[in-house]
Design brief:
About 45% of the residues lie in helices and about 20% in strands. The protein is α+β, with helices and mostly antiparallel strands. Strands 1-2-3-4 form a four-stranded antiparallel sheet, with helices on both faces. β2 (about 60-65) and β3 form a beta hairpin. It is globular and about 40 Å long. The model is unreliable at about 135-140 (pLDDT under 50).
């Protein structure tokens, strides 16, 4: 497992994983109507949601877990508010320590004084580069 920071070209894969996770892993805890309200079917194409996620991911401390080219999960911390904002692990990667690895590394990074400077630099670099879409594996089940 490799942990890497968010890049704008990861957004579609992240939204697809989010949708799948809500509708599979979280299905036992929520009704279909609640799942659809939380993660609607058009989640990867909704321009408002894409813009909101991209903005908050750029502002937050974030990490994505990868196994080769496949996104396993992701998480982010809102440092200004002091809370874990999102943490999602794909159905096929449940029980493999992905969430623990993401949380541990995010917590460690949040305690480093230099992390805010690194986040600013990452954000500026992401703003300067035009987004390129990463391939989405297993987007449809």
């Amino acid at each position: 497992m490799q942990l890497k920071p968010y890049q704008p070209n990861n957004l579609t894969a992240m939204l697809a994983l989010f949708h799948r996770t809500v509708h599979t892993v979280n299905a036992k805890d929520y009704t279909p109507q609640q799942q659809d309200a939380w993660a609607p079917g058009d989640v990867t194409q909704d321009p408002q949601r894409r813009a909101r996620w991209d903005q908050t991911l750029r502002e937050h401390l974030n990490l994505l877990a990868w196994e080769g080219e496949e996104l396993m999960g992701f998480g982010d911390i809102d440092l200004a508010a002091g809370y874990l904002d999102r943490l999602y692990v794909g159905e096929d990667f449940q029980g493999r320590g992905v969430a623990t690895a993401l949380c541990d590394r995010l917590e460690q990074a949040a305690q480093k004084p230099s992390i805010l400077q690194a986040m600013r630099e990452q954000s500026e670099k992401a703003k300067a580069e035009p987004p390129k879409e990463a391939p989405v594996k297993n987007a449809e089940r």
